Amino acid sequence: MQNKIIIYDDDVDILEVCSTILRMKGFDVLCKNNCREVIKDIEGYNPDVILMDNWLPDIGGVKSIQLIKSVPEFQNIPVIFFSANSHVKQLAKEAGADYMLQKPFELTELEQIITTAVMEKSKIC
Questions:
Q1: Which one of 33, 62, 81, 111 is most buried, by most CB atoms within 10 A?
Q2: Is the model's pTM score more than 0.85?
Q3: How would you classify residue 87: left for phi > 0, otherwise alpha for psi between -120 and 50, otherwise beta?
């Protein structure tokens, strides 16, 4: 069975590159350019990992992650916070993200952090 990933980013190029790479690695990928219905998205797609940008229309990445982590059935879904913000580590901690990735990043870094997150989730479930 394919692992599912939702990528939230308002940059179409990043969505395209990340989704292409992850699909080539065998992941099922859903891309969203806003976090307007983040809870509904997760309920409908049931992802194994969430990749969340900081700068998103509506409530933004930090608030979205806090919202996700406030829902008991979503607390074990690993969330990777990724941003070009120089305070990415601090923002990821404030958001309650499980992992963080500084933009720009190498594609191998992306693959590695997602593989780690998927393996951690499979230990929990």
A1: 81
A2: yes
A3: alpha
